[in-house]
Amino acid sequence: MAKKVTMQKIADHLGVSKFVVSKSLSGKGGVNETTRERVIQAASQLGYFTQKNAYVQNVKRTSPAAGSDRNKQSVLVLMPNIRSQTQDSLYWGKIVDGIALALDQVGLGMVIVSEHRADNFINILNPNGLLGLVGVGQISTSLLLEVHRIGLPMVLIDHEDPLIPSDTVFANNIDSMTRLSNHLMGIGHTLFHFIGNIRYSRSFRDRWIGFRSALEENDMKTPAGDDEMLVLEGMEDGTFRDDFRLWMAKRKKAKTLPSALVCANDSTALIVCEVLREEGIAIPADISVTGFDNIEDAMRGIPPLTTVHVPKEAMGRAAVEKLLNRIQNPSAPLEKILISADIVHRDSVAGPRK
């Protein structure tokens, strides 16, 4: 039988005091951020967070009594106001719509919190009356640690934390991007390039993996790991366009333009299309362009954008269903739910120029 992972064991592992470990895991001050992160990482690696009832919960929650009015219960939707993660987003907003509809169907309320600092989050969070949490998009480990400390059941959408265990919901990014890339190969394309910062989000990285896998399976050359188009800055506000324009100018001068640009999402693809038009490059006659997500603006692009439809509302509904199941079955194995996504064929793709 495995020995229990205690705070003392974590302290011994790191060569720090038990007091430092306790402070770090409780979310209290007095420990610098670097040490706190080391403690969280060590605790995760040693299996501390996965132990049943192992985590000290400093905040007491009042469980709803049997037969109580569920209308007085709410689910916390945590969507830190970072990058473009807002309720008005054509992507994230649709996910929140799905969450709201699913909660309304079972008579539950929703409280949206956009705080991204852990210390402020602690002050505004009142666990009583909250059944659980649905996290939307990128969320810091420190925030998730506070949720875990409280003992609030949680499900994350489009994000997973390597240190804090939870149920997650994703679109099937890898398989969908592989299918899209195979489609481009099927109509004759052999010169590809992926556009998007693969460090920006888990979804972007998974889409890159799907793209790369398709090339490898067809014995085609993949871009090098130091490719500047894989680490583009300014993805959230579109300021990457200047770097992309310079890159395109270099490729055009060297006569190494790709015949297809596979973009990490629709917002990126729409900006790529704008730059190509400004540079006198025809879409799709000269270069085909694809997106991902199928936001509403994708079909209004010039030309309308071939993309992958991510069922955003369905992801929100699936997260609520998983959360309610988790509340009823707290000891069940954690799950990663993948929602199928389909290719939407529009006018931004054609066979390569002969």
From TrEMBL:
Keywords: DNA-binding, Repressor, Transcription, Transcription regulation. InterPro entries: HTH_LacI, LacI/GalR-like_sensor, Lambda_DNA-bd_dom_sf, Peripla_BP_I. It comes from the Bacteria. One of its GO terms (molecular function) is transcription cis-regulatory region binding. Residues 5-61 form the HTH lacI-type domain. CDD domains: HTH_LacI. The keyword Mitochondrion does not apply. The keyword Manganese does not apply. PANTHER family: HTH-TYPE TRANSCRIPTIONAL REPRESSOR PURR-RELATED (PTHR30146:SF148), LACI-RELATED TRANSCRIPTIONAL REPRESSOR (PTHR30146). This is LacI family transcriptional regulator.
